[in-house]
Fold this protein.
Amino acid sequence: MRKSYKLSGEICANCAAKIQDQILKLDGVNDAKVNFMLLKFTLDADDARFDDLLAESVRIFDKVEPDCEVHA
């Protein structure tokens, strides 16, 4: 399943790259894109575990860049 989400708040290119790299390491994630210019996050992950992987992705956002919110 692939879904895109809006981001709000501040995020820099370096933090976006760190977040994307950490999400891509999660088991079950096929692809992830964090676009800091468009404030967009796209997650492609296993259908059966999608909600859990989205929640873990949001935790990664919070840890790396607390000022950025994912609007799911």
Q: What stands out?
A: The mean pLDDT is 97. The beta strands are 2-9, 29-35, 40-45, 68-71. The chain has two helices and four strands.
